[in-house]
Protein backbone atom coordinates (compact mmCIF):
# COMPACT_ATOMS: atom_id res chain seq x y z
CA UNK A 1 0.00 0.00 0.00
CA UNK A 2 1.34 3.44 -0.91
CA UNK A 3 2.14 6.17 1.62
CA UNK A 4 -0.77 8.34 0.54
CA UNK A 5 -3.15 5.36 0.72
CA UNK A 6 -2.09 4.76 4.33
CA UNK A 7 -2.60 8.45 5.13
CA UNK A 8 -6.03 8.41 3.53
CA UNK A 9 -7.15 5.23 5.29
CA UNK A 10 -5.74 6.18 8.69
CA UNK A 11 -7.23 9.66 8.53
CA UNK A 12 -10.56 8.29 7.37
CA UNK A 13 -10.73 5.98 10.35
CA UNK A 14 -9.88 8.75 12.77
CA UNK A 15 -12.31 11.07 11.02
CA UNK A 16 -15.15 8.58 11.42
CA UNK A 17 -14.57 8.56 15.18
CA UNK A 18 -14.37 12.33 15.40
CA UNK A 19 -17.43 12.78 13.16
CA UNK A 20 -19.50 11.06 15.81
CA UNK A 21 -18.20 13.54 18.36
CA UNK A 22 -18.86 16.44 16.04
CA UNK A 23 -22.45 15.33 15.44
CA UNK A 24 -22.86 14.95 19.20
CA UNK A 25 -21.56 18.49 19.73
CA UNK A 26 -18.15 17.67 21.23
CA UNK A 27 -15.18 19.62 19.90
CA UNK A 28 -12.15 17.87 18.52
CA UNK A 29 -8.83 18.18 20.32
CA UNK A 30 -6.42 21.07 19.69
CA UNK A 31 -4.41 21.12 16.50
CA UNK A 32 -0.75 20.88 17.41
CA UNK A 33 2.46 21.94 15.73
CA UNK A 34 5.46 19.65 15.55
CA UNK A 35 6.59 21.35 18.77
CA UNK A 36 3.31 20.30 20.43
CA UNK A 37 2.01 23.86 20.78
CA UNK A 38 -1.51 24.90 19.77
CA UNK A 39 -1.57 26.51 16.34
CA UNK A 40 -4.17 28.02 14.08
CA UNK A 41 -5.89 26.21 11.26
CA UNK A 42 -8.36 27.71 8.85
CA UNK A 43 -10.92 26.46 6.37
CA UNK A 44 -12.06 28.27 3.24
CA UNK A 45 -15.69 28.60 2.27
CA UNK A 46 -14.92 27.05 -1.13
CA UNK A 47 -14.45 23.65 0.55
CA UNK A 48 -17.97 23.61 1.99
CA UNK A 49 -19.82 25.89 -0.43
CA UNK A 50 -22.67 23.43 -1.02
CA UNK A 51 -23.23 22.91 2.70
CA UNK A 52 -23.10 26.66 3.42
CA UNK A 53 -25.86 27.31 0.90
CA UNK A 54 -28.09 24.86 2.75
CA UNK A 55 -27.31 26.02 6.31
CA UNK A 56 -24.61 28.64 6.81
CA UNK A 57 -24.70 28.88 10.61
CA UNK A 58 -25.12 25.15 11.15
CA UNK A 59 -22.22 24.34 8.83
CA UNK A 60 -19.98 26.77 10.71
CA UNK A 61 -20.86 25.15 14.04
CA UNK A 62 -19.80 21.74 12.71
CA UNK A 63 -16.57 23.19 11.32
CA UNK A 64 -15.69 24.79 14.65
CA UNK A 65 -16.29 21.45 16.37
CA UNK A 66 -13.66 19.86 14.11
CA UNK A 67 -10.99 22.09 15.66
CA UNK A 68 -10.76 24.83 13.04
CA UNK A 69 -9.85 28.21 14.50
CA UNK A 70 -10.30 30.48 11.46
CA UNK A 71 -12.79 30.65 8.62
CA UNK A 72 -12.17 32.50 5.38
CA UNK A 73 -14.94 33.66 3.07
CA UNK A 74 -15.78 35.77 0.05
CA UNK A 75 -16.84 39.37 0.49
CA UNK A 76 -18.95 39.10 -2.65
CA UNK A 77 -19.71 36.51 -5.33
CA UNK A 78 -17.37 36.12 -8.28
CA UNK A 79 -20.27 36.52 -10.70
CA UNK A 80 -23.74 38.08 -10.61
CA UNK A 81 -25.04 34.73 -11.89
CA UNK A 82 -24.27 33.02 -8.57
CA UNK A 83 -26.96 32.55 -5.91
CA UNK A 84 -27.17 35.20 -3.16
CA UNK A 85 -25.13 34.80 0.01
CA UNK A 86 -25.31 36.34 3.49
CA UNK A 87 -23.66 39.74 3.78
CA UNK A 88 -20.04 39.96 4.93
CA UNK A 89 -21.33 41.38 8.23
CA UNK A 90 -23.66 38.41 8.77
CA UNK A 91 -20.95 35.92 7.81
CA UNK A 92 -18.52 37.46 10.29
CA UNK A 93 -21.12 37.40 13.05
CA UNK A 94 -21.89 33.71 12.46
CA UNK A 95 -18.18 32.83 12.37
CA UNK A 96 -17.55 34.56 15.69
CA UNK A 97 -20.70 33.12 17.25
CA UNK A 98 -19.11 29.69 16.72
CA UNK A 99 -15.90 30.72 18.48
CA UNK A 100 -13.81 30.99 15.32
CA UNK A 101 -11.94 34.04 14.07
CA UNK A 102 -12.68 35.82 10.82
CA UNK A 103 -9.83 34.73 8.58
CA UNK A 104 -8.71 35.87 5.16
CA UNK A 105 -11.57 37.42 3.21
CA UNK A 106 -11.65 37.25 -0.56
CA UNK A 107 -12.25 39.93 -3.12
CA UNK A 108 -15.29 39.11 -5.26
CA UNK A 109 -15.50 40.39 -8.80
CA UNK A 110 -19.27 41.03 -8.71
CA UNK A 111 -18.99 44.16 -6.50
CA UNK A 112 -16.91 47.32 -6.46
CA UNK A 113 -13.54 47.74 -4.77
CA UNK A 114 -14.56 50.48 -2.34
CA UNK A 115 -17.65 48.58 -1.21
CA UNK A 116 -15.65 45.43 -0.45
CA UNK A 117 -12.77 47.23 1.27
CA UNK A 118 -15.29 49.04 3.50
CA UNK A 119 -17.05 45.74 4.26
CA UNK A 120 -13.78 44.00 5.14
CA UNK A 121 -12.69 46.84 7.41
CA UNK A 122 -16.08 46.95 9.10
CA UNK A 123 -15.92 43.28 10.12
CA UNK A 124 -12.35 43.59 11.43
CA UNK A 125 -10.63 41.57 8.72
CA UNK A 126 -6.91 42.18 8.24
CA UNK A 127 -6.13 40.37 4.97
CA UNK A 128 -8.05 40.54 1.70
CA UNK A 129 -7.02 37.95 -0.89
CA UNK A 130 -7.11 38.54 -4.63
CA UNK A 131 -7.87 35.23 -6.28
CA UNK A 132 -6.16 35.70 -9.66
CA UNK A 133 -5.54 38.11 -12.50
CA UNK A 134 -8.63 38.14 -14.75
CA UNK A 135 -6.39 37.87 -17.82
CA UNK A 136 -5.56 34.31 -16.77
CA UNK A 137 -9.14 33.31 -15.93
CA UNK A 138 -10.57 34.60 -19.19
CA UNK A 139 -7.97 33.03 -21.48
CA UNK A 140 -8.41 29.87 -23.56
CA UNK A 141 -6.96 27.64 -22.32
CA UNK A 142 -7.13 29.03 -18.81
CA UNK A 143 -3.86 30.32 -17.40
CA UNK A 144 -2.33 31.60 -20.64
CA UNK A 145 -1.39 35.26 -21.13
CA UNK A 146 1.28 37.22 -22.95
CA UNK A 147 3.80 39.40 -21.16
CA UNK A 148 2.16 42.46 -22.74
CA UNK A 149 -1.25 41.45 -21.35
CA UNK A 150 0.23 40.85 -17.92
CA UNK A 151 2.10 44.16 -17.89
CA UNK A 152 -1.09 45.96 -18.89
CA UNK A 153 -2.98 44.34 -15.98
CA UNK A 154 -0.30 44.78 -13.32
CA UNK A 155 -1.14 48.41 -12.42
CA UNK A 156 -4.69 47.26 -11.64
CA UNK A 157 -3.29 45.08 -8.86
CA UNK A 158 -1.36 48.06 -7.53
CA UNK A 159 -4.48 50.23 -7.42
CA UNK A 160 -6.39 47.53 -5.55
CA UNK A 161 -3.51 47.14 -3.10
CA UNK A 162 -3.46 50.89 -2.47
CA UNK A 163 -7.22 50.87 -1.85
CA UNK A 164 -6.84 47.96 0.57
CA UNK A 165 -4.02 49.69 2.45
CA UNK A 166 -6.06 52.90 2.71
CA UNK A 167 -8.78 50.80 4.37
CA UNK A 168 -6.34 49.27 6.87
CA UNK A 169 -6.06 45.94 5.02
CA UNK A 170 -3.26 43.90 3.50
CA UNK A 171 -3.86 42.70 -0.05
CA UNK A 172 -2.60 39.15 -0.67
CA UNK A 173 -2.22 37.80 -4.20
CA UNK A 174 -3.23 34.14 -4.50
CA UNK A 175 -1.12 31.97 -6.81
CA UNK A 176 -2.21 29.34 -9.30
CA UNK A 177 -0.15 27.00 -11.44
CA UNK A 178 0.28 29.63 -14.17
CA UNK A 179 1.96 32.04 -11.76
CA UNK A 180 5.07 29.84 -11.78
CA UNK A 181 5.47 29.54 -15.57
CA UNK A 182 7.74 32.24 -17.06
CA UNK A 183 6.23 34.75 -19.46
CA UNK A 184 8.79 36.92 -21.17
CA UNK A 185 11.51 35.28 -19.11
CA UNK A 186 10.05 35.73 -15.62
CA UNK A 187 7.24 34.03 -13.67
CA UNK A 188 4.19 36.21 -12.87
CA UNK A 189 4.57 35.64 -9.13
CA UNK A 190 8.14 36.90 -9.23
CA UNK A 191 7.13 39.87 -11.38
CA UNK A 192 4.53 40.86 -8.80
CA UNK A 193 7.01 40.46 -5.93
CA UNK A 194 9.58 42.55 -7.77
CA UNK A 195 7.15 45.27 -8.86
CA UNK A 196 5.46 45.93 -5.53
CA UNK A 197 7.14 46.31 -2.11
CA UNK A 198 6.37 44.00 0.83
CA UNK A 199 4.32 46.67 2.57
CA UNK A 200 1.90 46.92 -0.35
CA UNK A 201 1.36 43.43 -1.81
CA UNK A 202 1.60 40.23 0.22
CA UNK A 203 0.95 36.64 -0.87
CA UNK A 204 -1.44 33.82 -0.13
CA UNK A 205 0.52 30.76 -1.27
CA UNK A 206 -1.43 27.74 -2.38
CA UNK A 207 1.04 24.92 -1.82
CA UNK A 208 -0.61 22.52 -4.27
CA UNK A 209 -0.77 25.06 -7.09
CA UNK A 210 2.88 25.89 -6.54
CA UNK A 211 3.71 22.18 -6.78
CA UNK A 212 1.63 21.73 -9.95
CA UNK A 213 3.35 24.79 -11.41
CA UNK A 214 6.74 23.16 -10.89
CA UNK A 215 7.93 25.31 -7.99
CA UNK A 216 10.02 24.10 -5.06
CA UNK A 217 7.27 24.67 -2.49
CA UNK A 218 9.42 25.02 0.61
CA UNK A 219 11.96 27.26 -1.16
CA UNK A 220 9.13 29.46 -2.42
CA UNK A 221 7.72 29.99 1.07
CA UNK A 222 11.16 30.65 2.51
CA UNK A 223 12.10 33.10 -0.25
CA UNK A 224 8.97 35.22 0.22
CA UNK A 225 9.50 35.27 4.00
CA UNK A 226 7.11 37.57 5.85
CA UNK A 227 5.26 38.42 2.64
CA UNK A 228 3.43 35.08 3.01
CA UNK A 229 0.41 36.04 5.13
CA UNK A 230 -1.78 33.03 4.32
CA UNK A 231 -1.39 29.47 3.02
CA UNK A 232 -3.78 27.15 1.23
CA UNK A 233 -3.34 23.54 2.24
CA UNK A 234 -4.23 20.95 -0.33
CA UNK A 235 -2.30 18.18 -2.05
CA UNK A 236 -1.53 17.22 -5.64
CA UNK A 237 -0.21 14.28 -7.59
CA UNK A 238 2.86 14.45 -9.78
CA UNK A 239 1.31 12.99 -12.94
CA UNK A 240 1.89 15.81 -15.43
CA UNK A 241 -0.11 14.00 -18.11
CA UNK A 242 -3.26 15.10 -16.27
CA UNK A 243 -4.75 18.57 -16.42
CA UNK A 244 -3.96 20.91 -13.51
CA UNK A 245 -7.40 20.60 -11.88
CA UNK A 246 -7.28 16.80 -12.20
CA UNK A 247 -4.07 16.69 -10.20
CA UNK A 248 -5.54 18.26 -7.05
CA UNK A 249 -6.19 16.11 -3.99
CA UNK A 250 -7.22 16.50 -0.37
CA UNK A 251 -4.28 17.09 1.95
CA UNK A 252 -2.53 13.77 2.48
CA UNK A 253 -3.95 12.19 -0.66
CA UNK A 254 -1.29 13.28 -3.14
CA UNK A 255 2.45 13.10 -3.71
CA UNK A 256 3.60 16.21 -1.85
CA UNK A 257 4.57 14.33 1.33
CA UNK A 258 2.88 16.57 3.87
CA UNK A 259 4.20 14.37 6.68
CA UNK A 260 7.59 15.92 5.88
CA UNK A 261 6.44 19.23 4.38
CA UNK A 262 4.01 20.45 7.04
CA UNK A 263 6.47 20.47 9.97
CA UNK A 264 8.96 22.34 7.75
CA UNK A 265 6.28 24.87 6.81
CA UNK A 266 5.34 25.28 10.48
CA UNK A 267 8.95 26.08 11.35
CA UNK A 268 9.37 28.44 8.39
CA UNK A 269 6.11 30.36 8.23
CA UNK A 270 3.79 31.72 10.90
CA UNK A 271 0.88 32.42 8.56
CA UNK A 272 -2.39 30.57 9.13
CA UNK A 273 -2.94 27.67 6.76
CA UNK A 274 -6.40 27.12 5.28
CA UNK A 275 -7.61 23.73 4.15
CA UNK A 276 -9.10 24.19 0.71
CA UNK A 277 -10.41 21.90 -1.99
CA UNK A 278 -12.94 23.47 -4.32
CA UNK A 279 -13.37 20.28 -6.37
CA UNK A 280 -14.79 18.28 -3.47
CA UNK A 281 -18.09 16.39 -3.53
CA UNK A 282 -18.11 15.88 0.25
CA UNK A 283 -17.01 19.15 1.74
CA UNK A 284 -17.72 18.39 5.39
CA UNK A 285 -16.14 14.95 5.19
CA UNK A 286 -13.05 16.33 3.48
CA UNK A 287 -12.77 19.16 6.00
CA UNK A 288 -12.86 16.62 8.80
CA UNK A 289 -10.39 14.24 7.15
CA UNK A 290 -7.94 17.06 6.46
CA UNK A 291 -8.14 18.32 10.04
CA UNK A 292 -7.47 14.83 11.35
CA UNK A 293 -4.51 14.33 8.99
CA UNK A 294 -3.01 17.62 10.16
CA UNK A 295 -3.64 16.70 13.78
CA UNK A 296 -1.82 13.40 13.27
CA UNK A 297 1.18 15.03 11.59
CA UNK A 298 1.45 17.92 14.04
CA UNK A 299 1.00 15.55 16.94
CA UNK A 300 4.14 13.69 15.88
CA UNK A 301 2.41 10.51 14.77
CA UNK A 302 4.47 8.81 12.09
CA UNK A 303 2.67 8.19 8.83
CA UNK A 304 4.46 6.02 6.29
Characterization of the model:
By secondary structure, the protein is an alpha/beta fold. Helix 8 (about 190-195) links the parallel strand 5 and strand 6. Strands 1-2-3-4-5-6-7-10 form an 8-stranded parallel beta barrel, surrounded by 4 helices. It has a two-stranded antiparallel sheet with strand order 8-9. It is globular, with a radius of gyration of 19 Å. Helices cover about 45% and strands about 15% of the residues. It is built from 12 helices and 10 strands. It has a single domain, classed as Divalent-metal-dependent TIM barrel enzymes (TIM Barrel, Alpha-Beta Barrel). Residues about 1-20, about 25 and about 30-35 have low confidence and may be disordered.
Low-pLDDT regions: 1-21, 23-27, 32-37
Report how far apart the termini are: 10 Å
Strand order of the largest sheet: 1-2-3-4-5-6-7-10
The largest pleated sheet is described as: 8 strands, parallel, barrel
* Mean residue pLDDT: 89
What series of H and E elements makes up the topology? HEHHEHEHEHHEHEHHEEEHEH
Strand element count: 10
CATH-defined superfamily: Divalent-metal-dependent TIM barrel enzymes
Please tally the helical runs, counting DSSP H or I stretches of 4 or more residues: 12
Helix share, percent? 40-55%
Using the coordinates shown, work out and report the CATH topology.
TIM Barrel
β-strand amount: 5-15%
Shape: globular
What's the CATH architecture?
A: Alpha-Beta Barrel
Amino acid sequence: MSRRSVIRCTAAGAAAIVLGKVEAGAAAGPLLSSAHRPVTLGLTDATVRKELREDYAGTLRRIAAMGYTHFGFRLAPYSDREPPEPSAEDKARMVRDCGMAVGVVRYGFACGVEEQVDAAAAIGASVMAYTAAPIFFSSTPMGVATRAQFDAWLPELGRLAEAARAGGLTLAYHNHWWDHAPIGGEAPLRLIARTYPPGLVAFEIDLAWAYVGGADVLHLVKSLKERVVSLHLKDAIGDASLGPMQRLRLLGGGDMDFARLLPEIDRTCHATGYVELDTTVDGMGDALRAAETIRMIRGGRKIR
